[in-house]
Structures are given as structure tokens and as C-alpha cells.
Amino acid sequence: MRKILGLLLFSVVLNIQVSAQTFTVEQLKGFNKLTMDEFKKEMKQLQFKFYDRTEGLSFLLTEYEAPDYSSKIGKFEYKEEKSEDRIEFEFKDKKEYDQYLKLILAAGYKETEKGKIITKEPYTDYFRNKEHIRLILSKAGQNTPYTIIVFK
């Protein structure tokens, strides 16, 4: 009986960890190094569900959603300018945004620019050597979503 309860408890904890999964900055940077096919396989292994595929004139965007619908991750692949490839990770928690900010600053990234993206959300760019990360806040008066973009 104890073994069954222990196994059941382990299963519940494992499901909670998978559903509350978040990515480290290093993992996000690593996704940029993957091909689109490798990225798709990785998302399936992490039990993320296919969300959308968008093909523009110069890029392909493939997006996946977390099993608990709390976050979304997308990989942009550009046809001509491969240096523009990037990973976008969208999440709903300000606490997680603050954690990313602390990690980025602790890793030696320096704030370089602030502005607003085309849809009016404020962003801040951070650079370390040639590495570029952008944090995007939600619109004023809204509390979701938050986004981290890791450029290639």
C-alpha cells in the first residue's frame, strides 16, 4: 500500500513539475542552435502541444504551448538572414519576468535600449558581448503576457 501511495505521490509531483515548466536563459539560447525539426522534437519530448505555424515572406514561425496553457514558445527561422533567427518565450507571471531579469543582469548582460514594440508593449534590450536578449512587459493596465526573446 505504501509503495502505491509513494508511486502515486511521485506521479502527481512529476505532473506538477512538467506543467509548471519554465526554461532557463541557457535553454532558450540552446533552442536557437537547433534546426526547426530538432526544435519540434524537443517540444514534443517536453510535452508541449503544437499551437500555430506562420509563414511570412522571409520567415517561418512555429509555436508550441505548455501542457497547462501557462506559456507559449516559438522559434523564428529566417530564410535569408539567419542571424535574425530567435526564440520567443511568452508567459503570464510577473514574478517569472522578475526572475529572468535578475538572471540576465547576474549573467553580465547590460541594459542598452528601451522602447515599444509595434503593438505598444514596452521592451528593454540587454547585451553581453554579441548576445542579445529582449524582455517585453505587458501593456499598461494589463498583467499578461510577458515575453523574453533570445536572439541568435
Structural notes for this entry:
The chain has 152 residues and is of the alpha+beta class. Strands 1-2-3-4-8-7-6-5 form an eight-stranded antiparallel beta sheet. The model is unreliable at 1-21 (pLDDT under 50). It is 33% helix and 36% strand. The protein has helices at residues 2-19, 25-33, 36-45, 94-106, and strands at residues 49-55, 59-65, 71-78, 86-91, 110-116, 122-128, 131-136, 146-151. 17% of the residues are buried. It is globular. The protein has four helices and eight strands.
Tell me briefly what this model is.
The chain is an alpha+beta fold and 152 residues long.
Content of β-strand: 35-45%
Query: Which residues sit in consecutive blocks of at least 5 with pLDDT less than 50?
Result: 1-21
Mean pLDDT, rounded to whole units? 86
Globular, elongated, flat, extended or rod-shaped: what is the shape? globular
Number of helices: 4
Strand order of the biggest β-sheet: 1-2-3-4-8-7-6-5
Q: How much helical structure, as a percent, in the residues? A: 25-40%
Helices and strands, in order, run as HHHEEEEHEEEE
Radius of gyration: 17 Å
Class from secondary-structure proportions: alpha+beta
The end-to-end distance, rounded to whole angstroms, is 51 Å
Largest sheet: 8 strands, antiparallel
